[in-house]
Fold these 3 entries.
Entry 1:
Amino acid sequence: MDFTIDKYIQFSDALKRHGAHARMYHDVDRHPAYALRIAETECAMGWFTTYYFRSLHFSSHAGIIRAVAALGHNIGYHYESLATCRGNIDAAYADFCRNLAELRRLAPVHTASAHGTPRSPWDSQEIWRHHDIHRLDIDYEPKLDTDFSRTIYLTDTGRRWDGYHVNVWDKVPGHQQQWEREGLIFHSTDDIICALTTPGHPVNRHSLLVNTHPQRWMPFGTAWIAEALTQRIKNTAKWILIQHKSLGAKKKN
Ligand SMILES: [Zn+2]
């Protein structure tokens, strides 16, 4: 069964063996308590990663953020400032700086990743066309600071590893097709584990940047079924949204 905590452990184990060429990070969109459970699991394995928290959780889940940091993981800011500020770049930059300062009261923060809101027309990474994120003592923004000609991006967005067709924001345009041609697109977690543990598989010639959402990885039960069903509905809605947008673009042309 996929997207369980047991599968997560198998997956992390295979990634650990990929050594310094595998980088894992977590976007904590919902349920920060699940992030703490994954953080504890990883810590027990001696596997340390990065957890990006949204500003809406800074005060309500400060204890969890501190606990994840105390386990030895990195803490990052999962920002959505341009959507929050409805497209106003300067207001979004001020919002980012304010929230970053608030998170830094809980843990050292030198990294930030953008949260994508499917229904929002704004991509928060647009802020960095007008301002320099690195002047804020941020060393790494995954989508901005990764060389995707050398690194494959894998995300569990959509509760599958090949969901870029139904993702609105979480994809790497320009590289996705190249990875598809090279056989570097995977559907299930087992597909990735199998590739990583097969000597000579092309995935082993690449670095990997892996993004997960901790609320997705839980023991099988009522919550697991609810998450699976909700995601199926969301994927259908996102697919309709993408069709609608491309139809709108065709009409404009
Ligand atoms: Zn997110």
Note: The mean pLDDT is 89.
Entry 2:
Amino acid sequence: MSKKYDVIIIGAGNGGLAAAADCARAGLSTLLLERHNIPGGSASSFVRGRFEFEPSLHELAGIGTPEEVGSIEAMFTRWGADVDWKKHNSTFRLIVPAKKGDKDTFINENGVEVTVDARMPVGFENFARKLEEIVPGSYESCMKAFDLSERLFKAFDALDNPAKLPFSIKDLPDIMRMASHTLKEGLDELGMPKKAQDIFNTYWCYMGSPASTFDFLYYMTVLHSYVKSGTGIPTLRSHEMSLAIDKVIRDNGGDIWYNSEVTKVIMKNGKPAGVVINGEKEVYGKYFICNSYPAVVFRDLFKETEIPKQQLKMLNARKTAVTLTTVYLGMNKTKEELGITDYSVFIAPDSDSDKQYALTKDFFSGYCIINCLNEIIPDCTPEGTCQLFLTTMTHGDVMKDIKPEDYKKFKTKVAKDMIETCEKALNISITPYIEEIEIALPPTFSRYLNTPWGTPYGYMLEKWDSMIPRTAQYIKDQPFENFLFCGATQERGDGYGCAYYSGEKAAGIAIKALKEGK
Ligand SMILES: Cc1cc2nc3c(=O)[nH]c(=O)nc-3n(C[C@H](O)[C@H](O)[C@H](O)COP(=O)(O)OP(=O)(O)OC[C@H]3O[C@@H](n4cnc5c(N)ncnc54)[C@H](O)[C@@H]3O)c2cc1C
């Protein structure tokens, strides 16, 4: 019989990589299994012609400043993973182009008629002052929201590590009181004017739930980490991060097998005991950490009779989160020649996040984020060129009416519409200068990541299923004592940082249980 591992990790996305790094570093015999030939899941890169594209990472919070190390940076340092970070010292620019009949419009610096054009800086005070400049009367509520978010991190610690702390969540009464509020309710209660809320809520799309659904406290932690000290990205695309963690795992004695898809979980005495790889090879372990989606795992890797009933109920109650379409463009002009002045511009057909979310049920509704990597890494493409990536969101089974024979035409039309939207909103010309183009629709992400509808976002964060209840219920929500999920489907939802944290959390539980001989 082959070697029996302490821990087998299924999937080398961000969550699986983090889990494997911690398990290997703790001295457990660790096996990481990945169906592709490279690590990372979404955190990767691909090459077309002269360009190496970043497939997913717009911004990573938690990369600190020379004065204060950020939490993600600290995690990589703790692992001994070597990554060259490039800092980005502003947050977002939101542009809402004017529609017929809109009041309060103005012509912005690009010569476009808009209702909102907000370029928001880093730093709580700077952010609040800028918001006040755009929407008088918003400063105080904005600062109050940031103040609450500072204390919120304590509350999460209190939930995650109750035994270790000298205080409990009950010692944070304002946090307790705000815990049931949606983002909209929280900001209304703080007295923030609606127009300021619309700007303040721009990052809702990074978590995929709009202001009437998303919980106030969680949004505040997200915005807090972006505004506190800006964001960062690795110099060599997110592939650099994934390769650095791969090295940590191997340096600490862990095994990584690529081209190894787990096709079945082997059960013994009512609990997982091993896995089958590529339909052939069996390998056994004591503990399992799974970086794939519960819906996919229970459909493909277990017999129906083996799945705990509670898991099926949970899956039926949860909504799959939004999914993305991305257009990657290699340009034969520099960003200066194209007239691009910002790293990250959110172009929205309506300023209200709930209306933006409602519009995502149509395939492309005019909501688009445009990023230019050269703004942060000037030499990430050959001289005289730059790379752009455009992203839009959709939700639900949006591809169901598209016939296979129409797919290519459909894909081209979506890309064309997205490019034209950016050209109009920024008053620039993109189309004539495209040297390379790659278009990823939900089926592309679905095939690559093995997720329902191609979502990289897990399950929708809603009032009943937000970060706090998920954190409090984490252990109860796992299917077996020795089989834990990690990644975007877990407590914090999607995002690089969230997936790494969830991998670390699952690893911590496995390490403790195995060291205690459970
Ligand atoms: C276009 C795009 C833009 C994004 N922008 C940002 C951003 O700016 N900032 C941010 O923080 N986040 C962003 N995200 C989200 C972020 O990338 C994801 O939420 C995060 O990477 C999810 O990580 P995960 O651990 O859930 O693993 P995933 O990336 O889902 O990877 C799972 C891995 O498991 C493997 N796997 C699945 N099933 C099996 C099996 N049976 N056997 C073996 N292997 C298996 C898959 O092949 C894959 O490699 C973006 C995502 C996309 C797609």
Note: The mean pLDDT is 94.
Entry 3:
Amino acid sequence: MTLLNQRILIIGGSTGMGLAAAQTLAARGAEVLVAGRSREKLDTALTHIRGKAAGYTVDFTDAASLADLFGQVGQIDHLVLAAAQDPAWGPFAEVKVSALRHAMDHKLLGYWGSLQAALPHLRRDGSVVLLTGAASRFALPGSAGLAAVNGGIVAMAHTLARELAPLRVNVVSPGLIDTPVYDAMPAEAKAGMFAGTAEKLLVGRTGVAEDIAPAIAFLIENGFATDMVLDLDGGAR
Ligand SMILES: NC(=O)c1ccc[n+]([C@@H]2O[C@H](COP(=O)([O-])OP(=O)(O)OC[C@H]3O[C@@H](n4cnc5c(N)ncnc54)[C@H](OP(=O)(O)O)[C@@H]3O)[C@@H](O)[C@H]2O)c1
């Protein structure tokens, strides 16, 4: 019961892997604080979490919004960063610098600003879990933009595990996971992408958010875990 009454903030906790983590952590006795931009998504998420939970609006690309969030949330034991938007997919020759800059703003710099804003409120020997992405762990043509954004987070996590110790800093690197992030894709294109990926994976299927949530909980719970990258990608590498 190491999670009992631990206060855990999940930025990007209203859908997908962040929400699955919130459900798992709350079920193990933690108090989960889920954050995202949409009040509506947060309210829906709260109806799916059994246990102690609250929802807060934040835009993690905005320093004032982050300051407001931490003013409301107060002290926390652990932080999970699971938000992202508009990844810079596509062949290297076609991804414009402006698209990569936008993707950096909406993931790497969002993580950077969130952790910086969290530090004064985060228990010194608590932990941080950063969700990155498998595209930075092996060479996947068409994913150089994702590799750059997520690889930057992995690299910074190694440094921060040492610089911020005894705070523990860990990474979960998921492969293709069926979450609402793909809702905007035409159904046929999405089904094709998931089927095509599944047949190449060692496990013969793509992931679901529930594959990832216990890994996030493990890294929070295990006081001996720091500077780790947990690759959960069905064998994609
Ligand atoms: N799904 C995959 O296949 C996959 C693979 C590898 C890595 N990942 C990474 O895993 C993480 C979780 O992905 P997911 O698929 O679970 O995503 P998701 O279902 O789309 O959830 C994203 C969450 O982030 C929030 N969010 C987005 N932009 C935000 C912002 N500017 N400020 C604050 N919150 C924001 C969203 O709520 P609002 O929209 O209301 O803000 C939502 O709660 C992301 O970092 C993603 O890059 C995903």
Note: The beta strands are 7-11, 31-36, 52-57, 76-81, 122-131, 168-174, 177-178, 207-208, 229-232.
